[in-house]
Write a structure and sequence with these properties.
Helix content is about 45%, strand content about 20%. With about 190 residues, the protein is of the alpha+beta class. The model has no long low-confidence stretch (mean pLDDT about 85). Keywords: Membrane, Transmembrane, Transmembrane helix.
Length: about 190
Amino acid sequence: MEDHLKEGNMIWVVLGVITIILGLLLSFILPSLIHMVMFTAGDLIYIKTPTASKILFPIGTVFLALFFFLMYYQSKKMRIAAGVSVILFVVISSLSLSSYSVIREERIVHSDFFTLSSTEYSWNDISNAVLLKGNEETPYETLVLTMADGTELFYDRDPKLRTEFNKVDFILESHGIYFSLKDRQS
């Protein structure tokens, strides 16, 4: 009987199947949940987790499941491939969690993809605010905040932001920023 067919190695297959099942169930909500746990505090207004983060995380989960399936085999090549697979899981999952934007009462914290650091903006750093109207293609409004350094931050006015929008509008107005309402460019 070959070594990889022994019963003790079946734990790797079981872990791989569990990872795929849980990964399919949780991976689209897990980045948002992790961001919520990381950033929830008293002055939190809104957390934006980009859609790309919600797509990258399941891809990372596939690499984790692949790691478990490859560990079933005893050969050195398979173990090296499993090592590469788990490294890809860590890299892709880290990238998916490193992109976010958080609106707080005192500041805005933003982190782009492929960066491990975040940029903090005070409300005084906002030079312009525009609310883009919804249309047939995009049924929701989008708040665009232009910072003093030229960075534009986009916040879709989803149900969560819609409930907190009066607070954001009040903070903008208290800092002398009045958003303008514009049509979307096609």
